[in-house]
Structure prediction request, 865 residues.
Amino acid sequence: MQNATINQCSGVFYDSGGEFGNYANNEDFVLTICPENAGQKVQVEFLNFNVESDRDVLTIYNGDSTAASAFGSFSGLTNPGLIRASLDNISGCITFEFTSNNSINETGWEANISCITPCQTINSQIDNTNPLPNSDGYIRVCVNEEITFDGSGTFSTDGTGATYQWDLGDGTTLDGQSVTYSYDTPGVYLVNLNIRDTNTSENPEGCANKNLINQVVQVSNQPDFTGTAPVQQTICIGESTTINGVVSAIEFINDCTPPVSGSTFLPDGSGVSYETSVTVDCYDADQTLDDISQLVSICINMEHSFLGDLVIEIISPNGQTVRMHNQGGGSANLGIPWATGAIDNNSEITTPGIGSNYCFVPGNENPTLVGGIQAGGVFPLGDGPETYTDLFVPEGNYSSVFPLTGLLGSPLNGNWTLRITDNIFQDNGYIFEWGINFDSAIQPSELSFTPVIVNQEWDADPSITNTNGNTITVQPLNIGQYCYTYRVVDDFGCEYTQEVCIDVQEVPLANSDGVPIKYEQCDNNVETDGNSGNDSTIFDLGTQDPQVLDGQNPANFRVGYYLSEEAAVLGENPLPTLYRNQSNPQEIWARVDNNDTPQSICFAIAPITLQVNPLPAFNLEPQYNICFDRNGTEVIDLAIINIGLSDTDYTFEWSYNGTLIPDEIRSSLVPSQGGTYTVTVTDISTSALTSCEFTQSTEVIESSPPSLVLSLTTRAFADTHEIEAVATGMGEYEYNIDNGPWQDSGTFTNVSIGTHTITARDKNGCGLVSKSITVIDYPLFFTPNGDGRNETWNIVGLNNQPSAKIYIFDRYGKLLKQLSPSGNGWDGTFNGQLMPSSDYWFVVEFQEPRTGEPQEFRAHFTLKR
Prediction:
């Protein structure tokens, strides 16, 4: 530091002590630093500064002497920072005046010296466009229509080497004074030309123009063709239909304030603020918020688990701030947060929840967030499935704690900032999206447009038979799809088309030959109730398709079947392919549709009669019998199998054990041998189409009368007696004794004494035979009392053994009587005297019938008087 005037644009400016020493006491210096070249400005940047506070002072002037205005006086540790000669400082110099007192001195200062060339004034301009703007100054084009922009700039100094970049308003930039571009999306775009010169003194990219051209480009949007449609989408060949052309232009309204999307995490904190901004740039530069009704809403999509944490503020581009929520509300939830309870206590877990929309609107008609709290909300506990209950704020419109009128006077363009301050630990949240909405009426008119339809017509087509305004009548001559183009042009010169197609279908036929279709089926069982009206069976309706189509190609048509004519016309409730009739006969309806478009308007119907024809009704016996003699050589009784049906109305086919019997073609058959006989009966009188047949089998059994052999299986005078009867022959036999009940076994037990008749018969009715056999035994008592019963006693069954001898004794062994088995027996007397009631003994000598050996048997009996 010294008294001097220097021209210098580099180097270091020190106090008088230089780089390593302190300045001296009682200094009073004035140093002026001027630029080296005309037009430059000096700037000095202080790296450090330390002088005795309030005693030693450095005063800096914006000029070439102390007579110029001062930037300020600096003392102590107050660092002047960067000092630059102003644009109106013609000299470009800076003057420094330093004074120190006679005591303490400090390290002084260190500052870098440099010079800058101030930015010149640059204005960009559009010289020409193709297409040219309209009378309102707007360029109007179609989507993907090219626009050429030619531009230049005016420079207060020199434009040599300047660069040009077009900002096309959709995020695209192109370099050069002349560019060509097309927009692929309808809308309104503001085009500007940005120019930078080669002066990098203030900005390494060069000095830029400050003006905005905001050339409006309006890109036409697609009109609404709703209503452009045929009266009938499908017609049958030979028919006509009308097609209406309807078009409406659609207003395009630019969204000046698109919301900020994407998650903004709100970490847990204590007095920590988080900000996110929306940039608004589509209003006039000087346009301000003049009436609170111009602000529609400030909407936030967010979640947070503790409303009482938060302060929510809106900050306008010029810094005006309104607090919309000022803590309060305790643990009330916003949205559905990820939390582990009413007090989360898990702020380190940053899993996003689900946001709800909360809109702050002007006025006080709505509650504040705190006033809108409701109880009883159920929320997932962490990742669930458990839940917890807490207070909550439902999404909707709310009033600001402090009036939003505090934003009046704010510029509309610029950054609108949402600031949320978290004041209490233990809870966090997310902002997923937010935006500020202004009344669309305050938008500049050029940002919205509604095209005008200036021409509309249908493209020519030979199948158009009449045109009435925008309505055409069409009648194609062949089947297939026919498309028609409705073409419109708007006042942008943009052409739009809407294609409308109709289907022309072949008209199907149903039973075109007119011969009634009768679908006959045989009943599935033999009916015996005599009522054919309830006969039913399963009909495979698909088998009738060929008769319904009558030669039409089944690949082009489909056939459905319906219960009634009405159902067939409507195409409702088709019958299943396998269908059981409900009455007999029954009329159903067939419907023929085009295969490509079933249930279309082009169809035909025809009735079909379902007829169930009866099976031949007869019933064979399960078994028939042929009776042979006992030798099995001669038939003594023929079997006749008789169906009982007419030989004229039915045919008969007989088989034996599965082999056809030739020449047996009548309704009855006389079998010649046993086996399985099967007859198939065919009805040839009811319907030649079905010729219903029924097959049944029966068994023919060969049999004969029995040959019978009887034998006693027990000896004479046994305790119990048993007779064994054996019948032999071709049949199956059963037995009885003394005309008693029949039994399959020939064994008879507990048979009484005396003579018995055993009969065997053929179960199939081929005869019987009877034989007698005598059981030898004695009566246990007799009663010779003159009543005519049991008057004598004798051995029973020895009549055929005349040599047998019977001796009767009293209890003392005295012989009372000798009898002959063939005699009258003992009458209970001895020498003409009646013997008393008592037991008497006997001895019999005989031959054992089973062996022929001589035997003697002793026993006693009782005489009762």
Summary: The mean pLDDT is 92. The CA atoms of residues 776 and 797 lie 4 Å apart. DSSP finds two helices and 66 strands in the chain. Helices lie at 545-549, 565-570.
